[in-house]
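#lab-general

N.A. 3:47 PM
ok so I finally got the sequence cleaned up, no stray characters, all 295 residues accounted for. can someone with queue access submit it? mine expired

B.Y. 3:52 PM
send it over

N.A. 3:53 PM
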Amino acid sequence: MGIKFLIVDDSKAMQTIVRRILSNAGYSDHFFKFADNGKEALERIRTWNPDMVLLDWHMPEMTGIELLQRVKELRLETRIGLITAERNQNSIQRAKDAGAMFVVNKPFTVEKLKESLIPALAGVSSLKDEPIPITQELIFPSPSAVSILLSTITDSKIKVSKVEPISVENLTLPCTLALFGDSEKKVKAVIILESETVDKLSESFATSIFKGEAFDDKLLAKSLMKALSIIAVCFYNVKDSQELSLFKTYSMQKMISKVQRMNNVPKDERLDLKFTFDDDISCHAIICLESQNGY
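B.Y. 4:20 PM
back already:
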């Protein structure tokens, strides 16, 4: 199971550069195809159905903006990001209005592209290999998408899988409770992570993306916030067609009644996850809608 990338640029050299940067960003084991212009890319989109199209703006036969407009007209479910030298803000806004999920300016770094891809790739169809809860307001994270994003960002291989519902009393204390919200600052979902999940996620991020910083409690706390922010963008808020954001976290030394009520949430309105790390240590987390608990 992997992500299908379509790289569209009239320069063969730039196609190679984008492919190499994607490999350096952690996407070397996924699938790649190329197109030299928008017209050829449209055919690839129709026949290959890529998960992510990385598109140049100025190309012969059909430009990037013309392809965006055509994809929108045809109602093709395609995620597209622009990698371009175009810097005019009105033009960039025009591209976003036409459906571009992000615009990255050339020249760009591995980190910049990775930062743009994280929310864009959340929940891509090829990663949905297990049923996940979907309500009228919210689509829960795909465990496979979370797994790939966490593993790509860190130097660890983190496998995330859906498991049968777990009783909150079986989670190892102390636990961390995180609240996720929408653009209107309303809490939409909550996640509770047992202590070992918190420790392993914090260590993975601290030793990869925060290399060189003093390894202390402050760094571990910052690392956990970064990991939870990645999980947040894997939610999809149907109302405003955006991902969620991390709002607050709380450390719990004992189970409180609000958290214990998670046990009563119907199976199709919660998501129980198991995290397995490089050393084969496994630990758990539970996600449910805010409306079930009223935080």
